[in-house]
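Request: Mind sharing a record?
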Amino acid sequence: MVAARRLATLALAGLLGLALGCRSSMSYYNEGVAELERRNYEAAIELFTEALDADPRSHLALVNRGYAYLETQRLHQALEDYDRAIRLLEDSNTPNPWFYNRRGEAYYMLGRYAEALADWRRAKDLEDRRAAKGIKVRVSADYLAMQQRREELMVDAERQVALAPPLATAIPTTPPVLEPASTPAAQPSPAPEIAAEVAREVPSPEQELALAEARLAHEAARLEAEARAAAAAAPPAPPAPTGAEIEAALAEARALHGAARAQAEARAAAAQPAPPPAGPSAEEVERALAEARLVHGAARAEAEARAAAAQPAPPPAGPSAEEVERALAEARLVHEAARAEAEARAALAAAPAAAVPAPGEAQPAAAAPRPRPIADLSGTWVRDDEYTFTLLDDGRRVVGEIVGTEDFSFYEVTLEWTSDRTLTGYAVLKENLSPCKFETSIAWSVDVVDEGTLAARTEEVGWDAECHETERTWGRHTFTRLPR
């Protein structure tokens, strides 16, 4: 289901790009992140380069391309990308400790231990300042692993700095005493500047050994952190379910997902202004909500049927492979038909229907045009809790998703303009911060303060220890647009 949603978002971004006659920087960036997650580093580098050609100030494309260079041992190119990304954020006065951590790794792998320590200390200082200000930041498992690896490498870097001899004593300052009868006259010793340059270009065997040990320690620490993260993310294999258990789980999943989506859509509908008398009736709204539940129930059933088909074959009492294939085909047809009908009904509900005049009555005036939005919201936005969202705005609808974090498997937003300054809609998300890994839908309401600031009200969901929803409240957030 996550892959299907990601493909849908990428397809929408591609369609908008085709309509404008070009592809956007964000579409290249999203594809580059997908290749990076698959460890296809060369493909990721090409896509991030395309993103930077379209938007040279994309610091996210720079830091991710730098990571791909780092993983392919192109350390100087990685360092150049990290330098550019850090300068862009310093120009906007929004330094990010993540960037300094990454550049510190590049310095360390190049044997520039003092500069690596300076970057890591800067990253820790930024983290401490956030904590002192009471800023709560949700930290991903990948960032925690990077912090642990940083602490281990800092100990080794400090040891390397302490062991490194001063440059002034690395090269003798006086020529050796030579026998005049057997050797020519001694050459004058090099100037101090030249001696220092020679010391840097020709490291001693001890320095070469220390540098090789440091690279091995870094690689071992990285592999160990990745193995720990993979072990923590991989749940134990459950026993193969029976046919009856699969059917019961599918039925329960459809009911839960449909209820959550229906509740979010009902809340979003309640937040919108009342439609004119000629709009859809309450019965039509109820039918549209029921069809929306069927859409997401069918999509969820398809995903779970695929997951069940990938497990070991159930006992003979369960469904056969042919039955599963037929169920998948029917689910796809139901999902596609219901989605098309639900979108048509949503478009009908958004535009008031024209009343048909009675015989002899005057023709009514044309409906007022849709208000033009005060700003185009397409771009990258940072929420006050430091999560980053990318949005695409076609003047009628705004769609987007969260990027640059592993706290969510997906977090996708769909909003519609209801006036020149307001939008309402919903978000579908699955979080990775808790053992339950909740998946739900929440209502959104957004006010445009100005072209660079949004004030949003979003539902916040409470859960108990047994992974049951307990309450829903409204939270407030501020979004700030990043420079293009």
